[in-house]
Amino acid sequence: ALGTLPKPVATACPYCGVGCGVLMTADASGAITASGDPDHPANRGRLCVKGSALGETIGLEGRLLHPMIRSRSGTLERVSWDSALSATAEGLSRIARTHGPDAAAFYLSGQLLTEDYYAANKLMKGFVGTANVDTNSRLCMASSVAGHRRGFGSDTVPGTYEDLDEADLLVLVGSNAAWCHPILWQRMLATKQARGARIVVIDPRKTATSADADLMLAIRPGMDAALFSGLLVHLAETGALDRAYIDAHTTGLDQALARAREIAPTLAATAITCGLPEADVATLFAWFTANPRVVTLYSQGVNQSAQGTDKVSAILNCHLATGRIGRVGMGPFSLTGQPNAMGGREVGGLANMLAAHMGFSGTEIDRVGRFWGAPRMAEREGLKAIQMFDAVEAGSIKALWVMATNPAVSLPRADAVRRAMAGLDHFVVSENMLSNDTVNSGAHILLPAAAWGEKDGTVTNSERRISRQRPFLPLPGETRPDWWIIAEVAKRMGYGEAFDWPDVASIFREHAALSSFENRGSRDFDIGGFSHLSNSDYEVLAPVQWPVRTPTDLGDKRFFAEGGFFTPDARARFIAIDQPDLKAEPDPAFPYLLNTGRMRDHWHTMTRTGKAPTLGRHRVEPLLEIHPDDAAVEGLAAGDLAEVTSTHGKATLRVAVEPGQSRGSLFAPIHWNGETASHGRIGALVQPFTDPWSGQPEMKATPVSLTRV
Ligand code: SF4
């Protein structure tokens, strides 16, 4: 029995970017269970298996419940909050004073609530004076952000989930939505049933999603942009371009089309480059041409790439060229991985964003500095995640505060990341769990943060919908909300006035006010209508899509149907992309390409889903999917153990022989962790190549070798 709730508490799921509404209810015994919120527009009462099992994940086993500091002998010892906060503040101030602000960094998380994220960004970018604030969202959707900004002049998702109900063609690129965005996938299947919509899946690997597709294109790894270049050429040559839209609202088509013709001059050439049957490519092109109501959804198979931004641009080019954007049932749609990747983007959680979707121009730095009353604004973009940990390794970053994420498992070259963090001068972790790979990498100060179910704030889902996450459990032990921890550190650094928030609603109001400050329609993100929201209205805030420009004008549901892009001339940009290729090809020493991704029933490094017996049954241990022919060549059978090795690390995994796997390509899940390679910590193998625009690492195609154990 965990407690009693007088009535169901409406909150939001802490897992994927669908952002489902959840009702948490206690039964007579006090046991708490989750059900779908019928009033939440994202899920209309449905939950997937992960959301349904939330009640199993809220126990206190393994929780960090008290502040701790590592003693000289290396043991973690319980201390008072005042000691831990003062030590955190003293270390940050000392490093910034001695080595300059850029010697300090925060590494944040898409699990943080918007208000937590806002507080962290304000402290570093306005008061410490560095933009070395990045987030695990860099691994998730940074390429979509960069693609949006390049094409639209802003990080705007133009459409809404309702478009999935109204489409005639749904094209999923690099997305296993059936497992990773299950409630949206059910919505797509309902559209298929209700209006006969066709579904196309473009993915090197056959998945649960492709099993229900009308057309599956098992594309050669890394060639998505070549396929969409071929599509752009096809649209131009079949008279399918929307000349009126192009002339009125865009610029750069000629250059983008010329480049597309170099990359994929004909349908036949496109098919060869992409490793696809010509007839299947022809079918996709014909369906796309014939169906104005087309939504192209893309996820990590596009984003997690050293050419991820180009892949996004190649997709946006096709939608801009046909004017299929911002209208009912059509548009490009980025499926975000995490529950609050979007909220993090909105407050400037990425090192190359300032706040409220602003960048680092002189005007924007000045504007945010005046709004915050900031003494020491960051003057330029900070280090993105991979660069940040390279700087930790090189010793130029000496103070690191990791919040709500586990980089020792999830980052590429995870073994090197773990070693690098052990050498930090000042290493702070705010966490739910007492022991994880990042804590065990030598963290000096542990700050016990409130977990989902205990904390209070807002998140934004993939369709720009802001939802409340509400607490339904008391704060256990001495845990505190992340925003409170950050504010208390800021006060001890001498910035009391700017961080003197009495409650979380005050932060939301400040965030809303900044979004409309000197905006005048020049920025997409505007929730100024919430600047004076009362605490009681914040408490009952219903899920709402931004923009919310005034309290009564809830703004536009969709963007860009009539142009109005956030570029200086209000026109979208077609992008001439680079020649698609992979950073590293297989060779005799490393003959396979390792693809990584999610399992249906687990989330990230399993600190929450690992507690739920229901979720443990689907896949019980780390595994390696391999094509039957490759398994035969390697002398492997289902159930064998195989050691997978890259130039960066190794892991031991259980072999699963899968005919849906492409030859030469392996797949392993990202979730498992632990001290040694035998725990299947797959991040240890992943190469650190990044996209030049987004800084997002290539996590889908690392050359590896394979031996039977
Ligand atoms: Fe949670 Fe995503 Fe499942 Fe919805 S689809 S219940 S947000 S994991």
UniProtKB/TrEMBL annotation:
Its cofactor is Mo-bis(molybdopterin guanine dinucleotide); [4Fe-4S] cluster. Coiled coil: none annotated. One of its GO terms (cellular component) is oxidoreductase complex. One of its GO terms (molecular function) is oxidoreductase activity. It comes from the Bacteria. The keyword Protease does not apply. Residues 6-62 form the 4Fe-4S Mo/W bis-MGD-type domain. GO terms for biological process: cellular respiration; nitrate assimilation. Keywords: 4Fe-4S, Iron, Iron-sulfur, Metal-binding, Molybdenum, Nitrate assimilation, Oxidoreductase. Belongs to the prokaryotic molybdopterin-containing oxidoreductase family. NasA/NapA/NarB subfamily. This is Nitrate reductase. The lineage of its organism: Bacteria, Pseudomonadati, Pseudomonadota, Alphaproteobacteria, Hyphomicrobiales. The chain holds residues 3 to 711 of 896 of the full protein.
